[in-house]
């Protein structure tokens, strides 16, 4: 989430202090502040409930659900750390007035947690693409240990890329918070900022879109192949053989051809997986992509700044942490049926 109180700079966070301005002690509850507060409260509750539902039966957590828990946990941490600081700073005309330590915490959350959330989305999309396109290899390799390792490597990678940027700014290039406000010194770290933007934000965005495209193409190819198999099967020598072939075809596994007793449940589960991937992709493109693309352009296009785009993108980006748990509740059996089972 990117908020600004008084002055827009080229960094993707900035609470700038107004030099010579008298500090107002009365909070200003503008539309933006109110919106972010609502997202913070509702998003915190939604992500917390999602984590509680998983925690009720930890022994039944599947490998894929480890990714979901990882994302919900990152959302919750972001909502509890970054949002309260940002909202408080945005309430006063004087901008950032909470000191250097609070600023460091805010910038850490902005850099590490935002990057972790974006990359967690990419991991889930790639995972779903793998599961739907190559289900057999997915089942063999996709264990809980594997998913925990992937999540651990992702956070190490985020800390290596984003954390080193944050640490360099903190130790060597931090601007005077009392004078300029809470922001990264992008003038001194411009090349580093641009590289991080491509590696940590643009690349996951491309991976999400590409994974979705691969899954949709694979779905179309399999559907056409299934239709072709059914048409070729309806060439029996007798009515009895036709009935037997049709029953076997209808009850066979779509990937292996093995006969199954009742395929309605697996088909419904596969349908929810497609719906989940579609909703996650659409929500990310709508909520997160505008801000990701915007700050990419800010870094690479001289003097690029469109205030209206920035404001709308900030509002949309804040919605991502709220939308994620809703999507998982709607598309995952464990979360969708948990409230009814209590």
Automatic annotation (TrEMBL):
Chief localisation class: membrane
Keywords linked to the UniProt accession: Cell membrane, G-protein coupled receptor, Membrane, Receptor, Transducer, Transmembrane, Transmembrane helix
Gene3D superfamilies: Rhodopsin 7-helix transmembrane proteins
Native organism: Hypsibius exemplaris
Residue ranges occupied by any G-protein coupled receptors family 1 profile domain in the UniProt entry: 46-328
Compartmental location: Cell membrane
Protein name, entry field: G-protein coupled receptors family 1 profile domain-containing protein
Annotated transmembrane regions: 28-54, 66-85, 105-126, 146-168, 198-221, 274-297, 309-332
